Structure formats: structure tokens, C-alpha cells
Amino acid sequence: MKLFYAPGACSIGIHVLLEEIGKPYESEVVNLREGAQFKPEFTSVNPKSKVPTLVRDDGTVMTEYPAIAYWLARTNPALKLLPDDFDGQARCLELTDYAVATIHMQGYSRIFRASNFSPTASDEDAVKAKGTDIVTKGFAVMDKALEGKQYLCGLFSFADTALFYTEFWSKRVGIALPANCAAHLERMLARPAVAATLKAEGLS
User: Fold this and answer.
1) Kind of pairing between the strands at 26-29 and 53-55
2) Are residues 164 and 93 in the same domain?
3) Please, which pLDDT band fits residue 119 given cuts at 50, 70 and 90?
4) Which partner from 42, 69, 122, 204 sits 20 to 30 angstroms from 16, CA to CA?
């Protein structure tokens, strides 16, 4: 397998999953700041111009965070990265999608790229404020989901990697994590797979 990633981007969660699984894989940095995601070398692999992108052993390409995470979990059942029961699996996907589609794409995207949501530069502060509200509400929802648990689905699952990367970004933008999310972040940082990923991405 080969993971295309950008250091510190959402792909860090898939990077963590690959470390948790422990099977050999390659990795290649996509320099988003320099626009490498739009160059033919990468668009020939993923025309969506996004990370994470996973090239599987048979040469086929998997994209989109929830899909990659689900596939990795299902193809490595011994690691129990996904609950056994259908309801638990649905909840795991629900939480993953909320972290990716709402906290990240609706919230952080407004904070990181306000100009993409603003008709004029004068609107950017309001856009960032809206993004902060979305992220803050998102963490409140996740905080409740973590009540009485160390991990979102009870045991560690791929949903935790999605929440992790959004928590990891909170210091970058000055958003305080609620207590359960803060404890979850520290718990994730203590996992060897996370430490290995941070080191590999030059973030430790």
C-alpha cells in the first residue's frame, strides 16, 4: 500500500491507522502549499486533488477519509478497528462522518480558508467566527459521545482517528477542547502509532 499525505493534514488520521495495523506501506508527501495536489503527477492518481489517497496492493485507488478508514478496518478484522455489531458499526461511521464532514469541512475549512467562503475580504472575520462556532459545537457533541468512555465506540476504532485530527488542530486555531475531548486527545497522543506518525510527519 502507498499513502499520499500532507503533514498535519486530515490524512494524519489514516497515517495513524496504517501504523496501528502495522503492515508494510509506503508514503509520499503531497505539498499542498506548493499546489502539488493539482499537478499531473498527483491528479493521475487522484483527480480529486485531495489527501488522504491510498493506493492499494492491487494498484486500485481509494479516496475519502471514511471510505479508506472503513476499508482498512474491514480488511484487518483481527485489530477490531470497527465494532462487531451493525449498530456499533453505524455509530462508528456516524461519528467519523461528523468529524470529517462537519467539524473539519464545515468548521475548520471556514477558519483555514475564509476567502473560499467570503464574497469580499471584509466578510472573512465573520466567516472565521462561524467556523469557530461550528467547531466548538462539534466538540460539544463529541464530548457528550465520550461520556464514560475512553474512546468514541468504547474500544479504540477508526472513528477516534478522525476525532483525533480535529482535536489536534484545536491548538493551531486557539479553540479550547472540552474535558472529555481534551482527555481523548492526550490518550491518543500516548498511543505508539500516533507518536510514530507524528515523528514521520515531522510534527513531534
Assistant:
1) unpaired
2) yes
3) confident
4) 42
Same domain, 97 and 159: yes
Are 20 and 81 in contact by the 8 Å Cβ rule? The answer is yes
SS3 61: strand
Q: What is the CATH number of the domain that holds 66?
A: 3.40.30.10
- How many whole angstroms separate alpha carbon 28 and alpha carbon 26? 7
Confidence band (pLDDT; 50, 70, 90) for 204?
Answer: confident
Please state, as a whole number, how many other Cβ atoms lie within 10 Å of the Cβ of residue 199. Answer: 10
For 32-78, what is each residue's pLDDT tens digit? 999 999 999 999 999 999 999 999 999 999 999 999 999 999 999 99
- Domain range spanning residue 116? 86-191
Report the DSSP pairing between strands 26-29 and 2-5: parallel
